Every structure is written in structure tokens, then in C-alpha cells.
Amino acid sequence: MKQQIQLSDHFGYKRLMRFTIPSVLMMIVTSIYGVVDGFFISNFVGKTPFAAVNFIMPFLMVVGALGFMFGTGGSALIAKTMGEGDDEKSQKIFSLITYATVISGVVIAAISIIFLRPIASFLGADGSMLDDCVTYGRIILIALPFLMVQYAFSSLVVTAEKPNLGLVVTIIAGIINFIGDILFMAVFRWGVPGAALATAVGQIIGGIIPLIYFARKNPSKLKLGKPEWDGKAVLQTCTNGSSELLNNISMSIVGMLYNAQLLKFAGENGVAAYGTIMYVNFIFIAIFIGYAVGVAPVISFHFGARNKDELKGLLKRSSVLIVSTSVIMFLVAGLLSEPLAKIYVGYDAELLDMTVHAFRIYAYSFLFAGVAIFGSAFFTALNDGLTSALISFLRTLVFQCASVMLLPLVWGLDGIWLSINVAEFMALVVTVTFIDAKRKKYGY
């Protein structure tokens, strides 16, 4: 039996891979059951409901993003505190962050359910698309507190040195979601409400399991106890995790902007094609996000312990792994663009051609995206939320918004597909510049 890896260990390539692979797989599985939802909606409900779900999804991602903020920001602070040798304080911060996530989820869900129809209408949905947006969104929002908890624990379980727990929870939630999709859409033919219900049930289970695990006596270093208010810790958590919150909000805003531009240049087919690319994109990008989630607590721990040699090693090895993976992902995306597109839109020849063409252009973004994703997580782990947020803000909002607004003026529809490549390349340049500029300050 292999010995459990601890945050305090020395991390060579082999140990780094062993420790981060569960987080990578966890993020991939999360993306896959989102992809499965899209497949069932597109093939069993229809093109318009598929476009409606893709249309409202960016908003649902925004409201769920607080879970990522609490999780990544809290993990950075908890792991740093553990590295400093204060286990009691790290326990208290862990409990506080968990309860804050639950309470925030309940409040945000209630407000969002009440105002969902005017929000969807404001974003541009109307007619049957508006009705489908509201139906899907309201059912999903009931599970929001649990989704936020699941998002938060995707980082917190790694800090607790239990990355496999996060993977197991995600697989269980994914299987429940998949079974729900089959029953509610393929068998019972409940349409959009069935798709939403399958997703919501999976999210509820995914949030409950880690709460039960950490509320009971467990072999990890963290356990849920009586909360103790610490305003400074909450503020630092929010600051640390602001990049992840900003990243999700920005991606959602950009998604809405893409949808608006695509409706203008290509109509409903454009939105459906973009939705297909996004489902596949989630799987590819999940590899980078999963690695960042897995390695971040290790970086935070050694930063807190002031182990500069280990920090240097972690940055060097992570850079090699990210660049190598980027090249592989670009090649795979090019080879699989048509087979993957057929899964979703093979029933419509015109839509299939548009989707394959768009995805082959979009695939170049995988050469650049990993560096910025890791760079943002790296600075979050160093408890430098400002730099992390700035990278995320520029990458996901400024560069993408500017690109998707300007490039179509020159290249039309292809300009929309090209915009992600320009934005990701610019984000790579900014990230490398920040890492080099902050080298002396943090000693890596």
C-alpha cells in the first residue's frame, strides 16, 4: 500500500502527478457530466431548448462561482496556516469557510429564483427560449447551495490531503446525473425540466457527501467544528479567491457576449455551435484547472513554511507539465473536432459543418490557455489575490471582450471563433511577465 502523500513532502514529477491526478480527473468528470446533459438535451429535447440551456448557463455559472471563491481562497489560507504550524487555527478557518459557503448559497439561490425571468429577458431571451431558460434555471437554482459546497470542497479536500475523496464524490454525483438524464429525458420524456432535475439531484448529492464526511471523525487534518467568526480570515479568503470568482463571472459575461454576437452573425445555429464547443472545451480546460486545484495547496503549504527550494521546484515542474499538456491537447482537439461535433449536432448537416470549422479554429487556444490558468492559481496559492485577479480579469474579460467585439468587424463569423486565440495568447504574455516580475518577492 502506497503511503499517503502529505503537503509537507518533497514533490518530484512522480509525486506531483500522483497527488494532482485525482483533481484533474475530478474536473474532467465534472465536465463530462455537463457534456452528457448537453447530449441528452440536444438529441432528446431539440435544438431550441439546447440553445436555451446554453443561453442561461453563463448566468448560472456566475451565481455558483462563489463556491470556487470560498474553496480556492480558503484553501490557500488554510494550507499556508498549516505550513506555519498552526493546525488549530487552520481547523477554525476551515469550519468558518464551509458554513459561509452554505449560507451564501441559500441567500443567492433565493434571490436568483425570484428574479430569473427578468434577468433572462434582459439578456435577450424571448418566446419559447425564455420559458425554457426560466424552467431550467429555477430547478437548478434549488440545488445551488449544494453546488457551491461541492465547488468549495473540490479545493478543500486537496488541502485536507484527501484528493481522492473529491474524485469519488464527483464520480458518484456524475453517475446519479447520468442515470437521471436517461430516466427523465430518454425514458420519461420530461424535456427541459427533466434535464434540470437530473443535474440538480447530482449536485445535491455532490454537496452532501463531503459535508457528512468532514462533520464526522475522519483521518484527514480537517474536521467541521463549531464556527468562530474571524472577519480577517473571511476577507483574506475572499481576496485570495477573488480571481476564481472573477474568472467565472468574466467567463459568463464573455459567454453572454459571444451568444449575442453569434445571434447577430449566425442566428440560432451559431449559439448551438458555440454551445457544443463549450461543452468540449470544458473537458480540455478541466485538465489545466484540475492540475491547478491539485498543486495549489502544496504551493501554499511550502510558502507558509518558507521553503523556497520547494517553491522553485514546483514552479519549474509545473511549467514543464503545463506546456507539454498544451501541445498534446491542441493535437487531440484537431483530430477529434468532427467526431466530437457529431455527438451533439450530427442531426443537422449545416450546423455540423459550422461547428467543426469553428472548433478547428478554437483548438489553437489550448496552446496558450494552460499557462494563464496555472499562473492565476499560482498567485492565489501565494495568497497574492490581487495579481491572480488581475491575470484572470485581463484573460477572461478584457482580452476576450475586446477580441470578440473587434475581430468580427474584420473577419465576420470567423472573427468570433478567432477571438479566443488572440485573448489566450495575450494572457500568456501577461502571466509570464508577472511570474518573472514577482520572482524575487516570493523567492521562487
Judged by helices, strands and strand pairing, the structural class is: mainly alpha
Poorly predicted sequence stretches spanning 5 or more consecutive residues: none
Question: Count of helices?
Answer: 16
Helix-strand sequence: HHHHHHHHHHHHHHHH
The shape, in one word, is globular
The counted number of beta strands is: 0
Number of domains: 1
The description of the largest β-sheet is:
none
Oligomer: single chain
The helical percent reads over 70%
User: What is the terminal-to-terminal distance?
Assistant: 33 Å
Range of strand content: under 5%
Please provide a written account of the structure:
The protein is an all-alpha fold and 444 residues long. It has one domain. It is built from 16 helices and no strands. It has helices spanning 13-45, 47-83, 87-123, 127-142, 144-159, 163-187, 191-215, 231-240, 242-265, 267-304, 308-345, 349-362, 366-381, 385-411, 413-437, 439-442. It is globular and about 60 Å long. It starts with 12 loop residues before the first helix and ends with a helix.
